[in-house]
Structures are given as structure tokens and as C-alpha cells.
Amino acid sequence: AVVSTQSTGEQVGNQPMVKEVDFIRLHLGPLAESVQENANAWVTSLGKLLNISARENMESLKAKIDGLGNDLGRSPDTLEDLKFVLKTISNIQDITLDVETRSRDIRERYRTLRMYEISVPEKEFEICDCIEDEWINLFQQSRRVNQSLVSVKKKF
User: Fold this and answer.
1) Tally: H helices and E strands in the chain
2) Contact present, 143 and 71 (Cβ < 8 Å)
3) Across 80-89, average pLDDT
4) C-alpha angle 116/7/21, rounded to 5°?
5) Distances (CA, A) of 11 to 14, 38, 45, 80, 134
């Protein structure tokens, strides 16, 4: 939708601004300017909606990663704690494909926002750029924790 709206504005701007039809001379400059302004307004509006959607998805994914990281850091002092940490490790492994898909979708949304020069706080771009690395680090940490729990598992 953003592409077609922007291209409509560009196409109108590329048309001749004065056209003669028989004995009538049409000055199309104000009309073309109005169409371009409306097209730009639509691009901005669609961009804001895309930004809201991307931000919500990114915040949700970041919260999930942070929560799993906290859960993974729990000390397995009791059998219940051990079960909880092992469940967290299993959960991390189970949702890997979903998280990677969501991460790519978020990155693509922010790439689109950047491409159409939609105003977005730089902090959001920074979070977007780091979220995939955070997931990779969490996944690797879950594997290390799983390996380190071998002796604890034997204890219980």
C-alpha cells in the first residue's frame, strides 16, 4: 500500500502541468500538488500504523526474551527449581523457529520504515538491531545451562 501510494504521487508529479484541450488550457499544477500532498500524507499515516505494529511486536518479543533470560538464571537449589529451569530450557528450544520468524518480520518492518523515511525514534532501531543477537545469546546460554545441570540432575 505504501509503495503504490508513493508511486501515485510520483506519477502525478511527472505529468505535464499545463495541458491544452482544443481551445481550453488546463493548469494542473495545483491539482498535482494536492494529489502529491495527499499521497505523502497517506504514506506518513500508513508508516505510523506500521511503526505502532512493529513497536508492539518488538516490545512483546523483547519482554519474552528478557523473561526467559530471568527464568533461565534461576538457581536450581530444589527439585522444583530444577524442573522450572529445565522447562525454561525446553521452552526456549521449542519456540526458536517462532522467535526467529518474528525477529525477521520486525526487522523487515523497521527496514521499510527506514526506506520510506518514516519518523521513528532511533532507540527503536537500536533495539530492533539487537533483538536477534539477544535471542541467539539466550539460546546459547540455555544450551550451556543445560550442560551445566548434568551434575545437578544426578543429585536429584
Assistant:
1) 6, 2
2) no
3) 95
4) 150
5) 5, 13, 20, 65, 43
